[in-house]
C-alpha cells in the first residue's frame, strides 16, 4: 500500500470506510474473474495488490465493517464452462504479499510471535521464484496420474487431465511415491516458445497471445487436447495437496523429493537461515529475472519446518507460513492522446486513457485506467492532493506503470512537457450513452448514470453480467452474442434469454440459424445450453441479478442464510419496510450492512416484475449445507486467561480451522469457554449463564491435539 493510501485510510470515518470497502469489493471481484476465469486481465498486478492491501488496512481499522464478499476472503474465481468440475480434496490457496524489505521482516517476526519462538532460536525459510503462469494440481493414486485440475476458485477447479498429459514435464507414472499424492505447481510458457507460437499463429491468420501467461492458460484450457499437444507448455512443481504419507519433514527436503520423483523444480530454490539471506535471495533472483527465459513476478518465502507450518495453519485464503515478495512495477513514458468514458453495469462512468503505444516490461500498451474524476484532477476522494496536485490533461506526457500483463495505470505527468494551450479535463455530468444526468452521490468516488435500463450501456452490461461465468454461464452466449441480440431487439431483459427457442427456433419466421455466424447445429447447441441452465443454484441466481453491492461471496452468504428462493424472495419484499423484522434480520447477517440491505430491497422493488417472470422459468436449487465431523464445528468459543501450550492467536486459528467461531466476549450464544490461568470476569459470566468451561488440556484433547 502506498504512503498516500496509508494517509487516506488513517483519515477515514466509519461511514466512508464502509463505502470504500464496498467499492474495493466490486473492483477486486471483477479483476479476479477477468484474471482467473476469463484469462483476460483488466487490472495490473501492482494495482490489484495495492487495492487489496488498502482493503486489508481498512478492515484492520474497522473489523466490524468487514463484508461477506470481502476480497480478503476470496481466492481466484469460479471455474470456466466446458470442463468437468473437480473439487479439490485440499484447498488451493493464494499468497499474501510483501512489497518491501520491512514487510518481509514483519512477516518473519509475526511468525516468531505466533509460535512464541525465542530470539535465540533459528527459523529457516525457503526462497524461490514466483512463476507467472497457471496453477495446477496433479493427483496421483498408486503412482498413476488420476486427474489434473486448475485452481479455479480454490475449492473447485477444471478437469484438464487430457491436456496435462500432453505436457512433457508432467509424468503420468511415479515410482516410490506415496499411495496418494497431489503435486501442485505452475504451468508456464518460455519466452522463446511464446514468440515462436505467436509467429505460427500469425502466419495462419489465427489469434495471437498478449503474453506468455495468457498463452499458457489458453493452451492448457483447450477443449481439444490435440491443440494443447502442439503448444510448448512447461511445469514447475513446488508444493503438494492431499498426501497419504509425508514427503519429508522440511519444505527443502520435500521439494527435493518431488525432484527425485521426476518433476521439474526451480534451480533458484534456496534455503535461508536468516532474514538477510532471504533478502539476498530476492536480490539474486531479481538480478537474473531478465535472463531466466520465463516470466516471474516476485519471490516466494516459506517456513521450512513442515511441523511449524501445520501449527501456523491457514487464514481464510492464504497460509500464515508463506508470503510473496513482489517485484516493483515497470514504468515507461508516453503521450496521453485522449480520454474515453465507459459506462458499466451499475451506471459507473469510468475514464480510460488512450495512449501512444509504448512498450512497458516487454508488452506494448495503448490504454490505461484513470479510475475516476478525482484521480484525473490530481486529488483523492477527500480533496487532498495526489501527485502533488498535478492533474492529467489530453496531450500530456505521462508515466505509465505495470507489474503484470494487463491494462496499466498512469502514475505521473511531466508538467515541463505540457503544451501551453492544454486544457484541464472536464468530466462529463451527463451519460455519454443516453444523455441522462450523471450524479455523484456524497461520499462516492464514482459518478453514475441515472438512466437505469433506458441507458443502452447499462442494459447491455447487465445482460453480460447475467450470462457471465460466475452467474448463468451459458455456453455459446457470451458478450459478443449478447451485444448482437440486444442490438437487434432479440433480448432486452434476462428472462427473454429463456424464450429464444420459442421465438427464434425452428418453425418461426425469423430463425437464429439464419443469422450471420449461426447455423442449424450452433443454434441448436445454444438452445440446449440455455435449457441446461434453467436449473441453477440459488447463490448463482442472486449474483446474476446484478444488484449493486452484491458480489459472489455475499450472494453465497445470502443463499446460505435464507436457504431457498421463496424464503429469500419473501424476505427481500418484506424488508422494504425498514421497521420490519425482515429488515432487522437482513442487516443482522454477518457481512450485510445498511448499504447492501438498502440496495437489495431497492433492486427487488425496481425489478419486481422481471425477477418474478425470470424465477418462474427456472428450477432454483436450494443452498447446500456443509457438513463437518469436528466436535466444535458451528460452535461459538471464547478464550480467556493465559494459554501455556500455544499462543492465543494459534488457538483461535485452530478453532476457526475446525469450523468454530471465536468471540471476544461471553454471551448467551457462547457454547464453550476455554479458561487458562488468570481467567477472570469472563469465567464468572460463563458460570452465571451456564456456559460450559474447560481448561487448556481439555481443549487440546477435544480437538485431538493433546
In which range does the helix fraction lie?
25-40%
The number of helical elements comes to 25
**How many β-strand runs?**
24
As laid out across the biggest beta sheet, the strand order is: 2-11-10-3-9
> How many structural domains are formed by the residues?
5
Attribute tags:
706 residues; alpha+beta; Helix Hairpins; D-amino Acid Aminotransferase, Chain A, domain 1; OB fold (Dihydrolipoamide Acetyltransferase, E2P); 5 domains
Description:
This protein has 706 residues and is α+β, with helices and mostly antiparallel strands. The chain folds into 5 domains: 1-74, Helix hairpin bin (Helix Hairpins, Orthogonal Bundle); 96-326, D-amino Acid Aminotransferase, Chain A, domain 1 (2-Layer Sandwich), CATH 3.30.470.30; 329-451, OB fold (Dihydrolipoamide Acetyltransferase, E2P) (Beta Barrel); 537-621, 5' to 3' exonuclease, C-terminal subdomain (DNA polymerase, domain 1), CATH 1.10.150.20; 636-702, Rossmann fold (3-Layer(aba) Sandwich). The protein is 36% helix and 19% strand. The chain has 25 helices and 24 strands. The strands form 7 sheets. It has a 5-stranded mixed sheet. Strand 21 (636-640), helix 23 (648-657) and strand 22 form a beta-alpha-beta unit. Helix 1 packs parallel to helix 3 (45-61) and helix 2 packs antiparallel against helix 3 (45-61). The radius of gyration is 27 Å and the shape is globular. The two termini are 41 Å apart. Mean pLDDT is 87; it is low at 75-81.
